[in-house]
Amino acid sequence: MSKRKSKETSSVNGECISQVQRILRERFCHQCPNGKLFGVQLQYKHLLELLKRTTIHGESNSALIIGPRGSGKTMLLNHVLKELMEVKQVRENLLQVHLNGLLQTNDKIALKEITRQLQMENVVGDKVFVSMNFLLLF
């Protein structure tokens, strides 16, 4: 094999590897819901309507999505959020906070992460905290 063909092959392989890495990174980080939903159309419709009412009409709703590991809970939520973000009125009102149960192990840590993601480090409820020490005491 000539050196020229070897370089072309390695550059093509490098591009393919880069594409595979990008796709895997997106799927592992839940950045794009590419998979199709099977057998959860009823749950999809119910969750979509619940979150629409919450964001558009300001209803105070909660949803608990439970199921075995790998059953599609996160994929269902990601598909619903993707469709919701296409609606202008929802997009303007929706705030997303992502918590990880392995990292945010108690209420205090979860509250700190929520305020960090909402960029409200010194505002919780109607209280304004001067420093992080006051927030930790809260």
TrEMBL record:
Q: Which residues form a coiled coil?
A: none
Which GO terms of the cellular component aspect does the record hold? nuclear origin of replication recognition complex
Q: Which organism is it from?
A: Chelonoidis abingdonii (Abingdon island giant tortoise)
Among InterPro entries, the record links this protein to: ORC4, P-loop_NTPase
Q: What is this protein called?
A: Origin recognition complex subunit 4
GO molecular function terms attached to this record: DNA replication origin binding
One annotated GO biological process: DNA replication initiation
